[in-house]
Amino acid sequence: MSIDRDEQPSVEPGVGPAPEGEPRFRPYHHPAAGWGAAKSVSRFLVRERALVDGPRAIMRMNHENSGFDCPGCAWPDDLKGLHLDICENGIKHVTWEMTPKRVGRDFFAAHSVTELYGWSDYDLENQGRLTEPMVYDPASDHYVPISWKDAFEVVGRALRELDSPDQASFYTSGRLGNEPTFLYQLLARELGTNNLPDCSNMCHEASGRALQASLGTGKGTADLKDWETADALFIMGVNAASNAPRMLTALAEAHDRGASIVHVNPLIEAAATRTIVPHDFTDMALFKSTRTSTLNLQVRIGGDMALMRGMAKVILEESKTDPKVLDQEFIDRYTTGFAEYRTLCEATSWEEIEEQSGLSRDDVLAAARVYCEADRTIISWCLGVSQHEHGVDTVREIVNLLLLRGNLGREGAGPSPVRGHSNVQGNRTCGIDHRPTEPFLDRLAEVCGIDPPREHGLDTVGTIEAMLRGDVKVFVGMGGNFALAAPDTPVTYEALRRCDLTVQVSTKLNRSHLVHGAGALILPCLGRTEKDHQRRGVQRTSVEDSMSMVHLSLGMKRPASKDLLSEPAIIAGIARAALPESSTPWQWYVEDYDRIRDTMAKVLDGFEDFNRRVRLPLGFRIKQPARELVFLTPSGRAEFSCAALPDVVPAPGTLALGTMRSHDQWNTTIYSDDDRYRGVENLRTLVFMNRADMRERGIEDLAPVDITSTARDGSERHLNGYLAIPYDIPRGCAAGYMPEMNVLCALVDRSAQSDQPVMKHVKVTIVASSGAAAHR
Asked: Is 10 strand, coil or helix?
């Protein structure tokens, strides 16, 4: 069906809190973390009335086998047993979950869905924790209480009455632990569908596909010990100070031991300058900062692949006079496709490399010099690399560069993607995959006694398209805020509204509860910080970090409400209602999560002896064949790729816009309207621009502008009245915050390589606005 975009709002209700004053911008010149982070955390704890529970949680967070895993980023726990392996955003994320505020039946009785839809997303989440299951009553336009038994029957009946299991889709965000993840995918597959979209479909799908094609694994091979011994670190498309703040410790330690640190990003972020590590009390007391970079390269948006190709070209040219620059023995023994890649690099001109990267030849030579002088190199990346049309090719080019010098399968070297959410990698490991492999399905069938479907299912974008067509009628969201996180906001909203039933398993009120199907349920669950009491005692769940370490997480707080259920219990309740003839022991699993882990150990590669190994200090690392130079590729070797460089230079009059988080934000959760590390106060409706691009368009500092994106099908999307901020960003590039700018990201603009929505290279025009600013 077609959507009449003229009927869709171009700007939804505000995301962040009401600004405390007029918008201000002052460039940030201070170290990352340190006293700025401490001050921000203190203010946040006071505001959230968490001066007791907050510090208690801090002392229990990320402690091996005796505390809970931070529900924020997926950076690994410190190997040296630090008592404060924490960061500013992690503390805020946990405190936000532990709020004493509650959202129960009285709240919903007082506020209709139509009224709540007009609230900002900040105000919605700021009401506090959900306390009991609720069902939407269309007659009154209110959510009303419903018992857990009746709620499960509503979902079960809707699933049983579908003409096909593929008319349901089961989404998950990265917050779900490994044990509920396994049960969730088992539910979907026993029902008969592989429609298992997840947040990785929108962020790191390109990384997984590229690494699988090049190395036979969908994950990075480096671990935290490698980071501690690398001679050179290349950090690409990562805003570490906000998105993986504990990485700052690794960067500071690397600098102190003399390692080279190269940041590749269109913006020079705070993490690429200096830091004061908060748990280093001496440095805090002396205000002593440590550099976190030795070289910053500001590529144009999408220019990372050209930089990697240029560095490879330098190495191959120098190898003609200095053969030791290449690890020819490694290449001959472990790789295939080198000769073709060498020919491709030789044929790629320096003019093309400079044009597409936005860097000079001297810049590329400087980066190549760092790489060649290092014996052991790690290349790390995040969404600035993966959320492009050519994200798979770029990650494969990163691997090409690593292969040239044998930076794989040895200490201090390898590819290292930075996952953005606590257990998003574990979700994929434990079965959340719309394209499951045949060996996995075979083991699942044998161990669990089901007949899983073999056809590929729907990913995130595919699910939205199917809801629009009416092909998906029931949508279940396990955590997250799907409506706000997905691209093409008005279209995603319309898709959800066309469902017969939407089910959201959540801890707090959010936009996805207000953009719902004809029927809607809110099922409140325990948070990561809360004790999970089941029949056989308090339970722990496990998570997998960004570097394949699996460890247990144990909640410490009394649940926010006696009516909350754990995620495994909710999944089991839905399963028993939807599959009344099932022989799967759903309730038996919920009584003791060790039972789930015993089944997982039989199904999942690398989880053998799961229950014993996960209780070891720091847990265990999932086996990684590529790390041992065993490549599960068709050739049995690491495979060089030979893709042409994409043309990422914007057409005349247009700009390439990338969406990103602000600092005081975690995914779609906004803590304030400030972005300390970029010097912004009281403003989210903004666009960062190169000053020359602003001057060319007659745009003054902090003046309102209108932004228009043009999709590949010719359709347009608009944001009006955003304020332009001059920033150190390459010409032809612009940037702004998600989720506000998701409206500009067309659903049809999905990568042919990864099926990810293209959210880092949106083609836009920006002109001085004729109307008022959008600043609230």
From this structure: coil
Is 72 inside any structural domain?
Answer: no
| DSSP bridge pairs for 290 | 275
User: Chain-centre distance of CA 116, in angstroms?
Assistant: 27
Q: What is the mean pLDDT of residues 696-705?
A: 97
- Asked if the structure places residue 678 within a domain, the reply is yes
- pTM more than 0.85: yes
CA distance 567 to 541: 10
Domain count, the chain: 3
Is residue 381 exposed (0-12), middle (13-18) or buried (19+ Cβ within 10 Å)? buried
Domain that holds residue 247: 213-417
Answer with the one of 417, 442, 477 that is the final residue of a domain: 417
The reply to whether 490 and 539 lie within a common domain is yes
User: Is 465 found in the same domain as 382?
Assistant: no
First vs last Cα of the chain: how many Å apart?
Answer: 34
327 three-state secondary structure: coil
Closest listed residue to residue 232, CA positions, set 274, 261, 252: 261
Whether residue 30 contacts residue 36, with contact meaning beta carbons closer than 8 Å, is answered with yes
Using only C-alpha atoms, the chain has a radius of gyration, in whole angstroms, of 25
340: helix, strand or coil: helix
Q: pLDDT digits over 263-281, tens only?
A: 999 999 988 998 887 666 5
Residue 395: CATH number of its domain: 3.40.228.10
Contacts from 491-495 at CB under 8 Å and sequence distance 24+?
491/3, 491/8, 491/464, 491/747, 492/464, 492/747, 493/8, 494/3, 494/8, 494/468, 495/464, 495/465, 495/467, 495/468
Q: Is residue 151 part of a domain?
A: yes
CATH number for the domain harbouring residue 666 = 2.40.40.20
Mean pLDDT of 70-90: 68
Judgement on whether residues 174 and 256 belong to the same structural domain of the protein: no
**7 band by pLDDT with thresholds 50, 70 and 90:** very low
592 CB-contact burial (10 Å; exposed 0-12 / middle 13-18 / buried 19+)? middle
Q: Are strands 274-276 and 290-291 parallel, antiparallel or unpaired?
A: antiparallel
Tell me, yes or no, whether 375 and 498 share the same domain.
no
Among 80-94, 308-322, 685-699, the least confident range: 80-94
| 119 inside domain | yes
The answer to whether the beta carbons of residues 357 and 299 sit under 8 Å apart is yes
Beta strands in 482-535, from DSSP E residues, in sequence order? 501-506, 519-524, 532-534
d(CA 388, CA 568): 35
In this predicted model, which residue has the larger pLDDT, 88 or 49? 88
Single residue among 401, 417, 433 that ends a domain in this structure: 417
**CA pair distance 510, 666, nearest whole angstrom:** 14
720 three-state secondary structure: strand
Beta strands 549-553 and 541-544 are: antiparallel
